[in-house]
Amino acid sequence: MTQETGGFAAFNLNPNILAAVIATGYEEPSAIQQQSIPIIMAGQDMIGQAQTGTGKTAAFALPILHCIDPAKREPQALILAPTRELALQVATAFETYAKQMPGVTVVAVYGGAPMGPQLKAIRNGAQIVVATPGRLCDHLRRDEKVLSTVNHLVLDEADEMLKLGFMDDLEVIFKALPPTRQTVLFSATLPQSIRAIAERHLRDPQHVKIQTKTQTVTAIEQAHLLVHADQKTSAVLSLLEVEDFDALIMFVRTKQATLDLASALEAKGYKAAALNGDIAQNQRERVIDSLKDGRLDIVVATDVAARGLDVPRITHVFNVDMPYDPESYVHRIGRTGRAGREGRALLLVTPRERRMLQVIERVTGQKVAEVRLPDAQAVLDARIKKLTNSLAPLVADAESTHGELLDRLTADIGCTPRALAAALLRKATNGQALTLAAIEKERPLVPNSAPRGDRPERSGDRPDRGDRERRAPVPLAEGRARCRTALGARDGIAAKNLLGAILNEGGLAREAIGRIQVRDSFSLVELPEDGLEKLLTKLKDTRVAGKQLKLRRYRED
Prior knowledge:
Helix content is 41%, strand content 15%. It is an alpha/beta fold and 557 residues long.
C-alpha cells in the first residue's frame, strides 16, 4: 500500500473508484468507512448507527459502486433519503466517486421536479437510483416493476424518514424490491420503530456503531453568510471591501471555479491566482512563494490543490463553495489561526445548504454566527479609507515636486485646483462607485435569513387547507385525549410529520393515534387516554422539522 492511497487501498476497491477517492483529497477512511465497507462489499445486510458528518455516504457509496456492473443498463442500487436536499447530496457523492467508471449513471428522484425525465433515466438504465420515498412511490404507481432489478438497498437517515411520516411508503417500496437484495440501514438513533423494520426486512444484519468525535477550531472566528448560488462572486467582492486581511485563501469545488473567481478578483485589482489539480508542480510552488512574500494576496483553490499549503500570513479563509463534509471544513479553516495567531473563516451558504451548516456546527461543537453583507455605508467608508491610505504618503512633498505643474495645468485648462484634483481622483478611482446610491445598486440581494427545515419533497406533504381553516375541534372518540402542540402549518408541518414523529419516538401502534388536525399556528393530535402522561414525558424532547414538539393535554373550556 502506498502512502498516497492510504488506508482505502486495503479494501481492494475497483482501481477506478480508488482513483476517484484520491482525487477528492481523502487520505484515510473514517471510522464508519473502516468498519462498513468490508461488510457491504461482502454482500451482508448491515445496521449502521452514525450521525451525519461521520463520512457515512462514502461508507456505502464506495462498496456499492464496487459491486455495480456497468455493462448492465438497469437499476442495481437504490438509496432512500428523507429529503430532496439529502437525495441530491448523496447523488452528487455517487457521481463524484463514479467519475472514472464509464457507463455508470446516477439519477436523483425527488418531488418538485418533473416525473417524466426521472422515469426516463431509470428506464434508460441508470444503475444508481437515489430517491425520496414519496416520489419513488409515485413512480411505482406508474410502473410497479421499476425496482425489480435492484440488488442493493440503502436507507439513509432512516429515523428521519419515519419522523417525516414515510412508514407506509417504505412498506410499498420493500414489497416492490427483490427479496434477495442486500439491505443496509443507517440511522442516528435506533428506536423501536427502526428495530421493527430491521427485524422484518434485514437478514442477520451486522451492527456498526460510531460515536461522533467533536472537532474543535476554537482559535478561529467563524461566520456564515446566506447567499444565492449565482451571487457568490459579487458577495465575495463585497466582503473583501470591508475585511481587513493580510493574505487569504478561498476554497471552491471545481477547477473551472478557481479560474473564474481568480479572474474576477484580478479584474477588480486584487493580486490573486488560481490553484488546482491541472497546475504543474513548479507553478504551484511559485504561487505559494508569491503568497508567502506578498506578491500575491489571494489564492483560489480546490481542496486537493491546497493539500499541505501552510502560509503564515494567511489571516482569512473564505469557503466560497460548501465543503462536502465537516472534516473538509475543519481542514480548510485550519489554514488560518495557526501558532496562536487569530484567524477568521467565512462560509457562503446557499438556501439548500443550510442543513450541512447545521451538521458542521454539531461536529465542530461551535456555532457559526450569521453575518450580513456590508451595507452601502460600510463599503463607502472602506473605499474612502483605502483611498486616504494610498494618498496620504504622497501628500508630504507633492507641492514641492509637482506644485509648478499644478499651476500650469490649471492655467492651461482654465480650471480651479479643486476641479483638477476632482478630475484626477475620478481617473485614479477608475469609475469606482463612491456614493451611497451607486454602491447600493451594486449589492446582491441575499436570501431571507430566517431558518427553515428541509423543503417538503412533494406537493402531497403540504398541510391540508381544510384542516387549517377549521376552527372547532371535531368530537373526541371514547378513550382518547386531545393534545396540542404550538407547531402548525406556518412551521412547515404536515399531519404525516406529526404522525411519523409520534410513532418513531412514542413506540405506539399506528391505530392508537387518532385524528391529527394541522392549523396555521398549532396542531391537535388525538392520543390514548390510558398512559397519556407517561407518553407525553417520553415525547418531551422529540423534534419535528428541527423544532421541539412540546405536546400538552388540550383542555376545551
